[in-house]
Backbone:
């Protein structure tokens, strides 16, 4: 069940992160980015990769919170009081 929940979290987040990455860098040039007032001297591919991973992690967090909130109170209470039960 853990693998299925991880798939529910990671796959949609991956797709949305890819779309957001394309949208952001359609209007921004990675070579003009600044971080804390200093020019970022990373290659374009490094900026693309780091930004994609940040987007992906943020959307995974969002998906995980949605799955957590989708559980009924009985499921949450069962996990709290009986941690040996599978999720």
Residues:
């Amino acid at each position: 069940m853990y693998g299925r929940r991880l798939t529910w979290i990671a796959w949609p987040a991956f797709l949305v992160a890819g779309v957001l990455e394309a949208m952001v860098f359609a209007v921004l040039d990675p070579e003009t980015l600044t971080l804390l007032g200093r020019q970022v001297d990373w290659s374009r591919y490094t900026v693309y990769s780091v930004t994609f991973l940040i987007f992906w992690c943020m959307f995974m967090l969002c998906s995980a919170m949605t799955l957590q909130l989708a559980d009924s109170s009985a499921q949450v209470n069962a996990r709290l009081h009986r941690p040996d039960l599978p999720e």
Observations:
- The mean pLDDT is 86.
- The two ends are 7 Å apart (CA to CA).
- The helical segments are 2-27, 44-70, 73-81.
- Residues 2-42+51-80 form one domain.
